[in-house]
UniProtKB/TrEMBL annotation:
Gene: ribA
Species this protein is from: Streptomyces lacrimifluminis
Associated pathway: Cofactor biosynthesis; riboflavin biosynthesis; 5-amino-6-(D-ribitylamino)uracil from GTP: step 1/4
Keywords: GTP-binding, Hydrolase, Metal-binding, Nucleotide-binding, Riboflavin biosynthesis, Zinc
Protein name, entry field: GTP cyclohydrolase-2
GO annotation, biological process: riboflavin biosynthetic process
């Protein structure tokens, strides 16, 4: 359903998240089902990659924010591509699980071009928080409500959440998804992303204890 009829017979815009398609998606990791959704409130097309038989509780789950530079181009500016790879491998090793790939989250919600400008500002000495603010943009405008709606649609009540970001946990809890376990997704840092990762830990409260082992990088 893409539209609804109002009381006067005129078409009214649909709202909420609608499941549109379910297609098999063989990947280098394993054979997933790609479940496509339309977020009518924001106009974004979303997808959940589902592996194996999904139970209602304790489902190994990753909410992955779209990152073109990291996910597609292998950027070392962030750890996003490696997190995506690790999460998909973990789900297949588990035998079942869900990865919700969240479109519209590029650059923590500021968009691709603004993210590239932020990267330019970081090369000039600002950290990732300062670079967003210097553009008059929010530090993090991502909304995880759509992810919770997708999980509800898939029949999930509780998850084992692969994340280092406490805001994802808090958002799912607010939207009625229980957290059975917090599963760290720690990627070894490199010299190109250590400053970015430290900023995530120190200014955005991400849980990244493994960074202590690389104190020699300034």
């Amino acid at each position: 359903m893409t539209e609804k009829l109002g009381v006067l017979g005129k078409a009214s815009q649909a709202s909420g998240v609608e499941r549109v398609v379910n297609a098999p998606l063989p990947t280098v990791y394993g054979d997933f089902q790609a479940v496509g959704y339309m977020d009518h409130d924001r106009g974004d097309e979303q997808v959940a990659l589902v592996y194996g038989e999904i139970a209602e509780d304790d489902v190994l789950t990753r909410l992955h924010s779209e990152c073109l530079t990291g996910d597609a181009f292998g950027s070392q500016h962030c750890e996003c591509g490696d997190q995506l790879d690790s999460a998909l491998r973990a789900i297949v090793a588990e035998g079942s699980g869900i990865l919700v790939y969240l479109r519209g989250h590029e650059g923590r919600g500021i968009g691709l071009l603004a993210k590239l400008r932020a990267m330019q500002l970081q090369a000039e000495g600002l950290d990732t928080v300062e670079a967003n603010l210097a553009q008059g943009l929010p530090v993090d405008s991502r909304d995880y409500g759509v992810a919770a709606e997708i999980l509800h649609d898939l029949g999930v009540r509780s998850v084992r959440l692969m994340s280092n970001n406490p805001r994802k946990r808090e958002a799912l809890l607010r939207h009625g998804i229980k957290i059975a376990e917090d599963v760290p997704l720690l990627i070894p840092p490199c010299e190109n992303n250590i400053t970015y990762l430290r900023t995530k830990r120190e200014r955005l409260d991400h849980v990244l204890p493994h960074l202590d082992a690389v104190a020699h990088w300034s």
